[in-house]
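Exercise: predict the fold of this chain.
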Amino acid sequence: MGTLPGVYEAKKKDGSLYYRTSITYHSKHISIGSYNKEEAANAAYREARKLLDTNTLYSPDDYHPDDFPHLSYQKWICLINFKNNGFYIKTPIYLYQKFFSYHLSPSDILLFDADDLFYYSKHSIMRRGNHLFVAEYGMQTNIHSRYGIKNFAREGIDYQFVNGDRKDFRYSNIEIFNTYHGVTQIDKTPPLYVAKIHLNGDYLIGKYATSSEAAIAYNKAADCMRQKGFYKTFTKNYLESLSTEEYKTIYRQIVISKKIVDYDIRNE
């Protein structure tokens, strides 16, 4: 143990020292962080102690880095959530009545429904540009896929955030227009879907009454091009709502553009 309150000495693999600090609150032992200097670790401990012991109830909007220079922002969120709501969560989550906020930084705050609390209390979110990931089974999983937003999806065409806030992942705020590759809805009443495939530019496959028909038409066009020896690998659509026989029946009956059927790969 270090000489200052709340501080513990630890060693790195190369034998050099670093300092860990932790705090106990309401019988819960909480790790605050690791620091290169004992004084910084103790300063973080004192900031955490002050935050938890004061009668002041902070909200997430009350964070000022000058007031807590050694305590990380994400740990600050964890502590005020524990103090105000009575639940310690190791990821930077703040609970509200029917939803919660996930705090990547003071200016990067995501919203989720309460139904997602268990998942995000166990998975830390990372950002790379506009992409949000969690580590899952040794892989990085884009969180958009959790809400039916495919990797190929185009905002405003295949899906939209109803209130315009791309950080609001509450289910009522995400509207999916299309779940299939190569398919776009062009009319709503009555519904009409267009299927296109990218060869040497975009080629129209056809227009269809349902998204599943358009998705199967895309698959049929992709199969047609593969049989011709076209070099590109196409992402096929999977229609889990259809049985194998139902899929085969629609596949046989669906009509695709003659331009696709007659496409000459020697033009490539």
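Check your answer against the key: The mean pLDDT is 92.
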